[in-house]
Amino acid sequence: MKKIAILTSGGDAPGMNAAVRAAGKFALNTDLEVYGIKRGYLGMLNDEIFKISSQDLGGIIDRGGTSLLTARCPEFKDPKIRAIAAENLKKRGIDGLIVIGGDGSFHGADLLSKEHGIKVIGIPGTIDNDIAGTDYTIGFDTCLNTILDAIQKVRDTATSHERTILIEVMGRNAGDLALYASMAGGGDGILIPEQDNPIEVLAYQIQQRRRRGKLHDIILVAEGVGSAHTVAEELKKKVHTDVRIVVLGHVQRGGTPSGFDRVLGTKMGAKAVQLLLEEKGCLMIGIEGNQIVTHPIEYAWEGQRRNHMEDYELTQVLSK
Ligand code: F6P
Questions:
Q1: Which of 102, 129, 188, 271 gives 20 to 30 Å between its CA and that of 135?
Q2: Using one digit for the tens of pLDDT, what is the confidence trace for 282-310?
């Protein structure tokens, strides 16, 4: 392997820059030539590919977002489009690619590898923490802390007005952000896509709390369950408390990456280059039991995600 490229794809996540930096620096310290691809697969298609120098990697480790820019690229599902994009790598002699993103981005990487023989390593970068084969994705920890900060502020006003406030957090298919924000933020209830928790139960829990003298509630709603607005409308029919909503939205994706996300991004970035130097491809990197591990890339969507049932039960008990 002589030349490799790095891209970030899908939703940005704090800590992606640490992975780009580590992969880039590690590779430049070997004899590899390193390229950056702007705007993910869209940039690969549009030939927005540039040679990375160490200057491009300075001053980014503490920055949220991604210095390589990112985009969603639905066109990449078309094999003809992938062929054009692959040609843009091949004409430069690039035969190794590091893809930092979520499972949609890994799907694209897998196809690129199978169809065009490019060696690809996936690094899980998404705030959602919805990828199998890793306990944590880059960006999850920072996002969790952003939500905790919001909970603390919302609680001040919820207690003052004795209200029920629903906080909608991101997580299309996974409730990890809602679950762990509730656990760490002392939430009073959660709605997540993995668990059927009918509104009736939530309403009953709120009423029980009122009987015990607790006059406010903070409920975490993962967006995968539906909008907090709809949930609030349903809830209002069943309880007599004042119900309000907060939709945190893209605030959750920004901010200075936490130490954890920087370390995770750094370790994964370096590992990706090591794997390419060993001529390995079609792999994803993860962290399991505090160890950096690798799996076939398909494991991201075919494997079993860590079971959160115990943690879910715990938050249910503690929110009583
Ligand atoms: O990156 C994952 C994610 O943050 C999801 O939680 C959310 O549903 C989605 O991205 C939002 O994407 P976009 O910014 O493209 O609207």
A1: 188
A2: 999 999 999 999 999 999 999 999 888 99
Nearest Cα neighbor of 127 from 55, 37, 7, 223 is 223
Q: Is 313 exposed, middle or buried (0-12, 13-18, 19+ CB in 10 A)?
A: exposed
pLDDT at 61: 98
Cβ(11) to ligand 1 under 6 A?
A: yes
**Sequential DSSP letters for 225-240:** G--HHHHHHHHHTT--
| Token pair 């709603």 in the structure block, residue | 221
CA of 172 to the centre of ligand 1 (A): 8
To test the pocket of ligand 1, the residue of 8, 169, 172 to mutate (highest count of ligand atoms within 8 Å of its CB) is 172
Helices (H), 32-175: 40-45, 79-90, 103-116, 140-161
Q: Is the pTM of this model over 0.95?
A: yes
What residues in the chain have per-residue pLDDT under 50? Answer: none
Could you tell me which residues come within 8 angstroms of residue 269 by beta carbon, excluding any fewer than 6 positions away? 18, 19, 20, 21, 22, 23, 24, 26, 98, 123
Give the dihedral sign, CA 40/44/46/52: positive
Domains and CATH numbers, the chain: 3-139+257-302 (3.40.50.450), 142-254 (3.40.50.460)
With a cut of 0.90, is the ipTM above it?
yes
pLDDT at 320: 79
DSSP 282: S
Check: CB of residue 233 under 8 Å from CB of residue 226: no
CA angle at 240 for the pair 239 and 242, rounded to the nearest 5°? 105
CA atoms 26, 256, 155, 172: torsion sign: negative
Amino acid 307: pLDDT: 83
Report CA(238)–ligand 1 centroid distance (Å): 31
Name the token pair of 153: 């502020």
* Cβ burial 208-224 (10 Å sphere, 16+ → b, else e): ebbeeeeebbbbbbbbb
